[in-house]
Amino acid sequence: MSLHGRDVISIRDLSREEIESLLDAGRKMIPFAEGTKVTRPLENKIVAMAFFEPSTRTRLSFESAVQRLGGSCLTIADAGATSMRKGESLYDTIRMLSSYADAIVIRHPNEGSARLAARASDRPVLNAGDGAGQHPTQTLLDLATMREAFGTLTGLRVVLLGDLKYGRTVHSLAYALALFGSEIVLSSPEGLRFPDERRVELKQLGARLTDQPDVHQAVRDADVLYVTRIQKERFGDEAEYRKVAGSYRIDAAVLARAKSRLIVMHPLPRAGEIAPEVDRTPHAAYFRQAFLAVPVRMALLNAVLGPAKRGG
User: Fold this and answer.
1) pTM of the full predicted structure?
2) Cys staple from 235: which of 23, 24, 241, 299, with CB 3.0 to 4.6 Å?
């Protein structure tokens, strides 16, 4: 099925076959993302970047992807500088943006906001993170990183470590890993466990889920260690945040008994949960992961906005 003109709000909007197709396309986009080749399928296309929450990698990699494809961007990087400060609704803001651009990339602190944006817009909407909800394009680049390292996504043992309650990246990623038959190990502070309703959904997909709160034990047999920061901005009570802040840290000692092929991933930014010394080890994959955001998002933008394929 063609992705041309479609919204991508959740990783659930994509089938396994569509994910694989996007990963294949993303791999082919690497030389274009590096600037060694040139392609312009989005020439004369405009993509609106509606970022109502702080972002570095997601916004800049999307902007880079658009420009590498020959398109241009309209960017909202500060909600306080828009008419929303005067009381304009998100619905009206997105409706207006859809008159100015060919597609909209949205990040917003409220879960469900991307779905609302899709209803407001008559142009394709891509979710760049909605509160503690979904982050489908992050999942695509995460999968691309794993597949580049191992050549497959099937049969991997992936440890999801950290904030599994509020972390939208792990919510999206766990669903995708279940589609590909990976084993998922959940490791978190007690107050930040993976939500029960999401566990039920994954088990319905046939996912192999285990809990291992001991980081040393979790890492020992892992192929992938996916680390997330504890997201202070998602806590309503700072006292609750302080209870779990700094409760885990990946350093050389933790990795001493890991498999030699283990890769350590992180959606970034990190806030002390991965020691700088890990950067110098062969396990560190998070900066490569950050780069792969560009070719993967190029592949998605081209699929949604590029020339429609016949028979799609």
Assistant:
1) 0.92
2) 241
